[in-house]
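dumping this here before i forget
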Amino acid sequence: MKIVMVIGCGISQVPTLCAIKDLGYVSLGIDGSDKACGIKDADIFEQCDIKDLNKILKIAKKYKINGIVVPGTDFPETAAYVSEKMRLPGIPLSVAQLCTNKYEQKKFLKDKGFLVPEITYMDKYNYTWGISSEMKFPLVIKPIDNMAARGTIKVNNRSELQNAYSKALQFSRSKKIVAEAFEEGMELSVDSLVWGDSVLVFAVADRHFALNPFFIEVGHTNPSILDEDTQREVRKVFIKAVKELGITHGSAKGDLKITDRGVMILEIAARISGGFL
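structure:
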């Protein structure tokens, strides 16, 4: 019987756990909490910190898993590490790391010719460090390594930087914070499955936010209301970026914007969206 390991047993992982069962495979759920709501949907459950790569590898070897997936949570490094060690289909660890570092990814994509927002590191001793005169307010202050807009806040002037930095710091695993130029435009969520050179885009959805200055997503319009030509360009840019990043197996999720300069990439993650898209 084939066993598929699922990183996380929260509400965003429940559909994957159920799909594995529907396909006739055995699901092995991993979560740091023994009270996670998806435990009941897993055929096997092991409690473990999903950031503990070596312990999860030990569990994977114990059950001789046939595959590992990370749906709706930003820990592709865990899956990449296990996949590399057990020679399972997956992305390289270096690719997973690039997909969880907001600064390095934007730098990489910019070097490849993609349109991305200007971004810089912030320093805890000088809240304007790295923010040049070319970076106009408003700015978006965010942790370099979190998802779902945790710790992300829009600032309109320099006097707001210190408070925004402090809030972002609470949500950064590495304690690194970045400032990113805020770009006007309609924001989209693009979801895909990836296998080799094939990138199957199955959703282009309009994102809806509330609670300014925070970026709290309250829903999607799916399919997008954009015209087909614009959606075609969005898919083209997204697919090209996925291939440049080196995502070859699993899934890829992009946040993109329609700006007056063209289709801009805000971020691409090596996972499927969380929530209920």
